[in-house]
Amino acid sequence: MTASDSASSSPTLEALYGDHHGWLRGWLRRKLGNAFDAADLAHDTYLRLLVSGSRPRPEQSRSFLTQIASGLLVDLYRRRRVEAAYLEALAHLPEAQAPSPEARALVIETLCQIDAILDSLPPKARQAFLLCKLEGLGYREIAARLRVSVSSVEKYIAHALRACCLALADPGA
Amino acid sequence: MTAMDATAAAPLDPAIAQRAAEWMARLWSGEASAQERAACEAWRAAHPAHERAWRRLQAMDDRLDSVPRQAARGALRVPVAAARRRTVQALGLAALAGAAGYAVHDSGAWQMAGAGHATRTGEVREIVLPDGTRVVLDTASAIDLRFDPDERRIVLRAGRILVTSGHGPLAAGRPLRVQTAQGTVQAVGTRFSVRQAEGRTDVAVFEGAVDIRPAQAPDAGLRLAPNRQARFTAEQVQPAAEVDDSAAGWTRGLLVAERMRVADLVAAIGRYRAGLTRYDPAVADLQVTGVFSLRDTDRALLNLSLALPVDVVYRTRYWVTVQARGRH
């Protein structure tokens, strides 16, 4: 590859790392306030790049990196929020019923996945799904709450289930 | 090996996922006819990919059902985008959830999503803003920054901050304001703290002065002098009282208690712990004087039990109750 080639085409992963890793870590540290999480997320950002195989145009390198890193930040905040809610609920259980660390990890993983999927849906699909699954409401009650028809509720639920079906792994996989 | 295993690695056809979702939504309605149920069974049996899509949904349903309902509600109820706007109300709700006579503190890490800077429960951290202003975030606090040519605005979403205003080039001609749900606090060359409490804002000034402006009553504002503290709602400012430097002890990980009620002390310590920190109403009005660690809250609670006739009972790591000695 000639010098002019590399100037006009996408930068290599090595170049992206060498030129921007320090800057990205600084950006994340300002968002997160601690160097350890920032280093982890910067690492994960490059890992994401490596796995996806996509590369930005040279002048868009930093906005490309921050876009990936922002997604990871959202995931991190989501995990913290889910963990906090779960621990809060655990506090109400007698100690003998406290789940094992493995069981906890599985629950938190499940909730994070479903939360991420539901976040990608229109608000009414999300609400319909949660009212059905968590509040145990029938479609008629959900329809009344959301001010939509009963057949719309069924469509919203199907929409949410479709997203789950496509995003989740096969059981046992 | 079955045909299902052979297809397991392949991506699922979106059309099949759509059909499986429609069938399950139909069954969940509780109004599927016997014919429809049979048709669903037939569809599943018609192709391994159909059954595979169905099993994914069943597995998701089973896993969600196995999560304690309370945890799932807390984790999933509020969409992220809405959670940002509802921070203040949610903090209020956490207090309402308490049983009679008990103080309950939400460990709430979730309300931090989307804030410019945030701390976790138990974490205290200092940040330096572009203009040189120093902000110490107390436990479970979150701020957004809105700096523009006219002003430097810090939006306090939750918790408490200590602000030491900067005088860098970016500060010139741009007032520094802290905004809470109840109004704004404008710095006049100063060091001050602002706390977002339930339905009110607490302000303490250590150096310089601040101007308090309630959101609904800008004319009812007040200039707060050094070593004075005040609290305000959106409508009014309560008269100022004295404050000493120990009120900023939290920035050094310390809680300085001077004849402090157990109820207030436990509430203050609880803000630095994940889970619930409660007290028995019978000990609420006991008074204690001392310096307690906020970095090691287990030790702080132990020290409380050494200073007063109270026991600290751990139901779980995340549920602690301070009660009268020998009452359990």
Straight-line distance between termini of chain A: 42 Å
Radius of gyration of chain A: 21 Å
Overall form of chain B: extended
> Structural class from helices and strands of chain B?
alpha+beta
Biggest sheet architecture of chain A: none
The residue fraction in helices of chain A comes out at: over 70%
Using only C-alpha atoms, the radius of gyration of chain B works out to 26 Å
Assigned CATH architecture of the largest domain in chain B? Sandwich
Q: Overall mean pLDDT score of chain A?
A: 83
Low-confidence stretches of chain A: 1-8
Q: What is the count of helical runs of chain B?
A: 9
Q: Could you give the count of β-strands of chain A?
A: 0
Number of self-contained structural domains of chain B: 3
Note the gap between the termini of chain B: 59 Å
* pLDDT < 50 runs, ≥5 residues of chain B: 1-7, 78-115
- The helicity of chain B comes to 25-40%
Largest sheet of chain B: 11 strands, mixed
Per the CATH scheme, the topology name of the largest domain in chain B is Jelly Rolls
Can you tell me the CATH class of the largest domain in chain B?
A: Mainly Beta
Q: How many helices of chain A does DSSP assign?
A: 8
Classify the beta-strand content of chain A into a percent band.
under 5%
Key features of this structure:
heterodimer; A: 173 residues; mainly alpha; Arc Repressor Mutant, subunit A; 2 domains; disordered N terminus; B: 328 residues; alpha+beta; Jelly Rolls; 3 domains; 11-stranded mixed beta sheet; 3-stranded mixed beta sheet
